[in-house]
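Lecture notes, continued. The same structure-token format from the folding unit now serves as the input rather than the output. Read the line below as a description of shape only.
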């Protein structure tokens, strides 16, 4: 079989690339080890609840994201979170507190010390950092103070990365924040100047905030697969390995599908799988090269979907609640999907997504299902304040061993090596969440951009 482009991995990156290439008239073969598309994205429906086992939301619908949904119109539709989802809660000393969004709430919040509240007034006048590999923890302490690290940044990173601010490098993990300081000298001043600059730019369809897909997140990869064409997607392909022919510039991938040997040739080959799968997939790379592109730690996460058909007088008008590691709780946080999107629970009920584990509490992900369920029910009462006699109507546990890549100190070496390998081997593209960001929008942007780049070369 001969195709214009081979794509390995039918997660969001691979599917986004496939959609863009198909739209531009190129033939693709999308190869996936599992028996379904979507990667970690999977939606479940049970007794009036609609819940996800992987990503619940995306953040920041860029023009690429909006264009992708427009391309898929009629197959799936983007859904933006309700206004109340703009509120984020932070757990401190036995209860959730709203994260401040303005001057008055910033002054009155119990999350930060008075010294740090006053200290933030001087943030626009502090000198730029000079250490390119400064951690997020060091940068936050330097510019905002320890309490902002403990009760804003630390829980935020628990929610996004399930990571540790003391090991995540700012310019890799939060490049927008890093650039605010480097380009404008200040978080506060930079944000104001960027907002002014944005108003002077031509309008786009891009939207801030949180988004999902109507009817469940898995409707997005299903729609993408339908657009690409099921005949171009090869599922349940095992023992895959890639072999380049340097003389002809042709890439060849071999594998086995349902016991039958498979071989596909192409001028372009894209990998979108996790870095831990690359050694078997790319056996032609030298050991030092492989070591540098697989030097990536993944945070393991357990996600627990919890549903109640009757929430009673309790209200959860927020995106969710995050928990600082200083609080010594078992959970990283809990999201409130039914406060954000329609159809996630019965009318008088609620759906919650609890998250446990991450790089700081990896041992918790090794607990048995019964132990995790026991801790979840305890948190259901302690964190969400449901009365002791009230029990969840539904609990479903999902385990993700390689949930979220950590952009730590080794990231620069990995990014540079990927660039060098792509220059060394014409037609090879090493994509996926090992570079260019970890969020859903990042994956869609990377895939779309890569598809455009290849189409322009072809």
């Amino acid at each position: 079989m001969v195709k214009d482009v081979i794509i390995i991995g039918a997660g969001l990156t691979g599917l986004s690339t496939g959609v863009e290439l198909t739209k531009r008239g190129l033939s693709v073969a999308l190869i996936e080890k599992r028996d379904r598309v979507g990667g970690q994205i999977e939606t479940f429906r049970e007794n009036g609840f609609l819940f996800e086992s992987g990503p619940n939301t995306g953040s920041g619908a860029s023009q690429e994201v909006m264009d992708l949904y427009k391309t898929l119109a009629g197959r799936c539709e983007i859904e933006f979170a309700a206004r109340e989802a703009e509120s984020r809660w932070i757990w401190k000393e036995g209860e959730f507190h709203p994260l401040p969004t303005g001057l008055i709430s910033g002054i009155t919040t119990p999350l930060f010390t008075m010294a740090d509240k006053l200290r933030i007034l001087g943030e626009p006048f502090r000198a730029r950092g000079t250490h390119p590999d400064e951690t997020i923890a060091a940068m936050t302490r330097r510019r905002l103070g320890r309490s902002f690290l403990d009760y804003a940044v630390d829980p935020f990173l628990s929610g996004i990365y399930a990571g540790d601010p003391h090991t995540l490098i700012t310019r890799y993990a939060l490049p927008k924040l890093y650039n605010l300081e480097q380009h404008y000298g200040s978080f506060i001043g930079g944000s104001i100047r960027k907002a002014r600059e944005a108003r002077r730019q031509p309008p786009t369809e891009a939207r801030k905030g949180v988004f999902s897909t109507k009817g469940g997140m898995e409707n997005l990869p299903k729609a993408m697969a339908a657009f690409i064409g099921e005949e171009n997607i090869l599922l349940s392909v095992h023992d895959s390995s890639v072999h380049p022919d340097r003389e002809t510039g042709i890439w060849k991938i071999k594998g086995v599908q349902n016991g039958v040997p498979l071989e596909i040739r192409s001028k372009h080959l894209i990998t979108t799988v996790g870095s831990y799968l690359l050694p078997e997939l790319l056996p032609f790379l030298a050991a030092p090269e492989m070591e540098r592109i697989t030097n990536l730690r993944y945070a393991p996460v357990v996600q627990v979907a919890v549903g109640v058909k009757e929430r009673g007088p309790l209200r959860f008008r927020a995106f969710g609640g995050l928990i600082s590691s200083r609080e010594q709780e078992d959970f990283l946080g809990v999201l409130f999907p039914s406060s954000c999107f329609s159809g996630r629970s019965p009318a008088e009920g609620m759906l919650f997504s609890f998250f446990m584990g991450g790089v700081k509490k990896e041992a918790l992900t090794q607990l048995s299902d019964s132990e995790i369920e026991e801790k979840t029910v305890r948190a259901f009462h302690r964190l969400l304040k449901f009365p002791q006699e009230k029990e969840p109507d539904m609990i479903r546990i999902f385990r993700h061993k390689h949930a979220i890549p950590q952009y730590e100190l080794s990231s620069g070496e990995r990014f540079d090596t990927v660039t060098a390998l792509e220059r060394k081997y014409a037609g090879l593209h090493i994509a996926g969440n090992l570079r260019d960001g970890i969020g859903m929008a990042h994956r869609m942007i990377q895939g779309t951009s890569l598809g455009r780049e290849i189409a322009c070369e072809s």
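Point for the exam: The longest strand covers residues 394-405.
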